[in-house]
């Protein structure tokens, strides 16, 4: 039997920088340079509320296939600290997804062996979707366990 725990998350910080610029013909948006094709890293922080509540720090790798058209592959690791369904501790989520036409979709998995305290044995997955500015209360995050 599976259980679902739902919270909402909002990005609270974003710092992206170029690792590799393949063509040298990117563009700057909101003070950040994006290569047309290349690899960037982003340090992103999140605030969670609801039955999943706490804070996190995430490191993403973006492989831009065409940043002007809005296409990138995404890998990331997120260290979450807080509570999930009333259990307190920390855990690590792995993100695998893509950025297409202004929207991010990703599969998030709890990595075994990296949890602490009440989240030491947490397992589960979530599918997330983000497009545009966060809605009031943040984006939905439903962790399915079991």
Number of helices: 0
Oligomer classification:
single chain
- Alpha carbon gyration radius: 16 Å
**Low-confidence runs:** none
* Broad shape: elongated
Q: Report the sheet-strand fraction.
A: over 45%
The strand count comes to 11
Plain-language structure description:
This protein has about 150 residues and is mainly β. Helix content is about 0%, strand content about 70%. It contains no helices and eleven strands. The strands form two sheets. Strands 1, 4, 5, 6, 7, 8, 9, 10 and 11 form a nine-stranded antiparallel sheet that branches. Strands 2-3 form a two-stranded antiparallel ribbon. The model has no long low-confidence stretch (mean pLDDT about 95).
Give me the secondary-structure topology.
Blueprint: E1 3-21, E2 27-29, E3 32-34, E4 38-50, E5 52-66, E6 71-84, E7 87-100, E8 103-110, E9 116-117, E10 125-131, E11 139-145
Antiparallel strand pairs: 1-4, 1-11, 2-3, 4-5, 5-6, 6-7, 7-8, 7-9, 8-10
Quick overview of this protein structure:
This protein has no helices and eleven strands. The chain has 146 residues and is mainly beta. A hairpin with a 2-residue loop joins strand 2 (27-29) and strand 3 (32-34).
Can you give keywords for this protein?
146 residues, 11 strands, nine-stranded antiparallel beta sheet, two-stranded antiparallel sheet, mainly beta
């Amino acid at each position: 039997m599976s259980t679902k725990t739902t919270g909402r998350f909002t990005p609270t910080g974003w710092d992206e920088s170029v690792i590799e610029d393949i063509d040298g013909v990117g563009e700057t948006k909101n003070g950040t340079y994006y290569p047309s094709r290349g690899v960037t890293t982003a340090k992103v922080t999140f605030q969670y509320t609801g039955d999943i509540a706490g804070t996190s720090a995430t490191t993403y790798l973006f492989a831009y296939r065409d940043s002007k058209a809005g296409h990138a592959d995404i890998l990331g690791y997120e260290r979450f600290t807080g509570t999930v369904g009333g259990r307190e501790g920390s855990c690590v989520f792995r993100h695998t997804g893509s950025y297409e036409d202004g929207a991010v979709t990703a599969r998030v998995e709890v990595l075994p062996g990296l949890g602490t305290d009440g989240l030491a044995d947490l397992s589960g997955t979530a599918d997330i979707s983000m497009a545009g500015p966060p809605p009031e209360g943040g984006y939905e995050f439903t962790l399915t366990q079991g």
